[in-house]
Amino acid sequence: MFGVIPKVVWSRAVACDEKNRVELSHNCLLLDSDGGGRATILIEAGTGDKLDAKMSEIFGLDGVTAESAMRDAGRDPGEITHAIVSHLHFDHAGGLTRRVREGETPDWTAREAWQRSGDAEGVKLTFPNAEVICQAREWADAIANDAVMTRTYFADHLEPLKLKLADGRERLRLVDAPEVYPFTRPPHRAEMPPGRLEDRCMEVLPGVRVFRVPGHTWGQQAVWFTDDRGREVVFTPDLLPTVHHAGAAYSLGYDVEPYVSMVTKRWFLHEAAERGWLLVLDHEPGVATVRVRANGSGWFDLEADEG
Fold this sequence. Notes:
Layout: H1 7-10, E1 29-33, E2 39-43, H2 53-59, H3 66-72, E3 82-84, H4 90-93, E4 97-99, E5 108-109, E6 122-125, E7 131-135, H5 136-144, H6 155-158, E8 172-175, E9 202-205, E10 208-212, E11 221-226, E12 232-236, H7 258-275, E13 278-281, E14 289-294, E15 300-304
Parallel strand pairs: 2-3, 3-7, 7-8, 12-13
Antiparallel strand pairs: 1-2, 4-6, 5-6, 9-10, 10-11, 11-12, 13-14, 14-15
């Protein structure tokens, strides 16, 4: 989780168990537009329930999923009209499908063992009425399995997205937000992207914009919206998974381009501080909502905001 940062350093701030595991969360957001009358939007879907017992133990999963959290809140997964995922690794998009339950017919069945993320051959779409929105680059890389990790893009949470919605519309909507650095060379360490952030955004739903934050994957995206209290909220993917990843070099060991993650983090935190964003961190197990402040030393601090 901390890439090149050695355990002797990161363990001063983050406790781990006897297996060197640190506590993380699968944070997801449920947005109701116009009180739920026009759109019900899920941001991020977590791992879901398809991993087998061995892998569930390795990752220390507690059995809570985006679906079960919705039901516990008195909401029906069938209400979701749109699901926006930051990227398609299993711990962010695996929850878009689930195990088949007694009396159900699979929506999609794996033909080969390698297509399964666990021991379930057939899967159901968890949010059957949801259009799924992700970056076209992320989809291309996921289908090609272009990742540092050998088992993170699984067919059983990707291939079912090719199934059409009940009304005949495409379930998967691929968007293509502009590149951050449209150069033929790598960006310099402290180089800010050219132009305005607004010019690199795409409005995918009324009041909901996405923009690319490359490094962890090439097509990773953040989600930007204004809530009913007038706060500018940005759902932050694996560029900044926890409050302990604010440091420039604190990138993940499975980033496809750790240097790009570091460069991206600089301009992202600068934008967050300048614009007063409320960030929602995707894996933070504590207070997942934070503000960003310039600290006078050329970098930034994160301050918890539970308001």
